[in-house]
Design a protein that fits this description.
The longest helix is centred in the N-terminal third of the chain and has 18 residues. The strands form 3 sheets. A 3-stranded antiparallel sheet has the order 1-2-3. It has 11 helices and 8 strands. The relative contact order is 0.12. Among the domains are: 46 residues, Ubiquitin-associated (UBA) domain (Helicase, Ruva Protein, domain 3), CATH 1.10.8; 96 residues, Tetrahydropterin Synthase, Chain A. Helix 1 crosses helix 2 and helix 2 packs across helix 3. The chain is 48% helix and 20% strand. Strand 4 and strand 5 form a beta hairpin. The radius of gyration is 25 Å and the shape is elongated.
Length: 277
C-alpha cells in the first residue's frame, strides 16, 4: 500500500522515532499503526542488545525525600554521552522512573523496571523504546532506598553524584543543615563504610596486603610487615570510614564528634552514595 508523508509524520509524532525508521516500520506493517509501533519497539530492543557492552558514564542522579523526611529514594539513570543526558525525553523519563519508584515503593531495581508508568507500559519498555529512538544504551545503573528518623539528601551540581543519609536519636532537632553537610562529605570523600566494623572484610584483607607489600618494597624487615600494615590500616579507617573522617568544613573534628556536638547521642544509621561515571 502507499505510505504517505502524513502517515509517517503521524507515527513519528506518536513514537518520537526517526522519519526513515517510521517509514520503514509502516511499510513492513503494511500501514497498520499498532504493528508499526511494535516493530519500532522491537527495533529498540535490537539496539539495546547491540549496545549492551557500551559504557554508560553520563546521565542524571535524582533523589526523592518523603514529605515526613523519614525515607529517601535515589535513582541513577545513565546513558553513553553527555548530549543525550540533556535531551528532554531522557530527563522526562528519568523523572518518571523516580516517580514510579516512589509511587510503587519499588523494593529493588528489578521491581522498578517492572513497574508501570502512566502510559501503561513498564519502565523497562519505556527505556527500550527510548533506546530505539536515541540509539544509545540507557540503564538504571543504581537504585536505593533508606529510612530513618530523619533522612537528608544532597545532589552535586552536575547531577551525576548524590548521597542520602539517615539519622537516629535526633532528639527532635531539625538536621537539614547538618545532614546536607554530611551528605556533601559523603559525595566528596567517598567513604567505604560507616565505621571500621562496617568495612567489607575483603577490603580490609586487601588493604593489609597492600600495606605489607609497600613496607616490603621500602626494605622493611619481614617480621615488621604485619605491624606496619596494621598501622597503615588504621590510617585507612581514618580516611575512608565516615565517622572517622575529618569534617571537611572543620578539620578539628571528626564526623562522629560533629554528631555528638550537635545532638548528644545522635547517630547515622545508614547512608548511600551514588555516582555515574
Amino acid at each position: 500500500m502507499n505510505i504517505t508523508a502524513a502517515d509517517v509524520n503521524k507515527l513519528r509524532q506518536l513514537t518520537g522515532a526517526g522519519m526513515m525508521d517510521c517509514k520503514k516500520a509502516l511499510t513492513e506493517a503494511e500501514g497498520d499503526f499498532d504493528k508499526a509501533v511494535e516493530i519500532l519497539r522491537k527495533a529498540g530492543q535490537k539496539v539495546a542488545a547491540k549496545r549492551a557492552d557500551n559504557a554508560t558514564s553520563e546521565g542524571v542522579v535524582l533523589v526523592n525525600v518523603s514529605a515526613d523526611g523519614k525515607e529517601a529514594k535515589v535513582v541513577a539513570f545513565a546513558c553513553e554521552t553527555e548530549p543525550v543526558s540533556k535531551v528532554e525525553d531522557f530527563k522526562n523519563l528519568a523523572n518518571n522512573i523516580l516517580d514510579s519508584a516512589v509511587k510503587n515503593n519499588a523494593a529493588d531495581t528489578d521491581a522498578l523496571l517492572a513497574s508501570t508508568l502512566a502510559d501503561g507500559q513498564s519502565v523497562q519498555e519505556n527505556i527500550t523504546e527510548l533506546v530505539g529512538k536515541i540509539g544509545e544504551k540507557l540503564v538504571i545503573s543504581d537504585y536505593s532506598t533508606i529510612t530513618g528518623e530523619q533522612v537528608v539528601a544532597y545532589i552535586h551540581s552536575n547531577q551525576k553524584a548524590a548521597a542520602i543519609v539517615a539519622f537516629e536519636n535526633t532528639g527532635g532537632t531539625d538536621l537539614t543543615e547538618l545532614g546536607r553537610d554530611v551528605a556533601m562529605q559523603i559525595v566528596a570523600m567517598k567513604p567505604v563504610g560507616l565505621d571500621k566494623d562496617s568495612v567489607d572484610p575483603a577490603v580490609v584483607e586487601k588493604e593489609i596486603e597492600i600495606g605489607k607489600e609497600q613496607a616490603r618494597q621500602e626494605g622493611k624487615p619481614e617480621a615488621m610487615l604485619e605491624k606496619i600494615a596494621l598501622g597503615k590500616l588504621a590510617k585507612f579507617y581514618k580516611e575512608s570510614t565516615l565517622l572517622n573522617q575529618e569534617f571537611v568544613k572543620d578539620s578539628s573534628v571528626t564526623i562522629a564528634q560533629l554528631l555528638e556536638k550537635t545532638v548528644k547521642g545522635l547517630k547515622i544509621s545508614s547512608f548511600k552514595r551514588i555516582q555515574i561515571g
